[in-house]
Amino acid sequence: xxxxxxxxxxxxxxxxxxxxxxxxxxxxxxxxxxxxxxxxxxxxxxxxxxxxxxxxxxxxxxxxxxxxxxxxxxxxxxxxxxxxxxxxxxxxxxxxxxxxxxxxxxxxxxxxxxxxxxxxxxxxxxxxxxxxxxxxxxxxxxxxxxxxxxxxxxxxxxxxxxxxxxxxxxxxxxxxxxxxxxxxxxxxxxxxxxxxxxxxxxxxxxxxxxxxxxxxxxxxxxxxxxxxxxxxxxxxxxxxxxxxxxxxxxxxxxxxxxxxxxxxxxxxxxxxxxx
Length: 275
Description:
It is an enzyme of class 2 (transferase). With about 280 residues, the protein is α/β, with parallel strands linked by helices.
């Protein structure tokens, strides 16, 4: 996986007023996914585990993955906290129903869905145990018995003894409509809060002043995540580091789930227990 920090193409509940959430067209230019790899991976998980057609995509971002699930025949409701993201999704990726909701606690109806999908580290914007409990309680309320939770995120265990993503700032750039956009990203580990903190400074060749953004992800460990899920009534069906849409090499159709949880991404499929 690239050392460039940040979940490609979506963030569920980042700090308000960030460059990419305010300008979703830049988000898609910076993190292209022309093959809809994340959406295809999620659909593969849903199909392999026999999920019904009603899907809630929490932290849908620009709507690309939700739209893919819609074209695969799912009845998709897609939720995000960013109004600009939702407006962009409705225009550029129609099909799903787009709503505003916060993954820290939401109510979209009782037993209204057969699956909840939460990709690209969106779940890790639950920084505290209380926020994670509220998210999982909301999932439990939204899912019908036997419903699935499919999530993909950074792996907190990767940072045990590894510093390759922390050693130096990462420089990146992309061009959109003739304007060069550059970023410098620095990651640090806040061990007390169990957070991976990110500072990213954006600059552009259009004369605008640089923009500094600060955000963070919860560093969840595989067994810790398993405990949270079990406590909330889920049976963990898969919990592994790859292959997945953000791994190297990436997931492709037909690859079985892995058996380890050591690399820098974590993938989970869990089923809500039937009464």
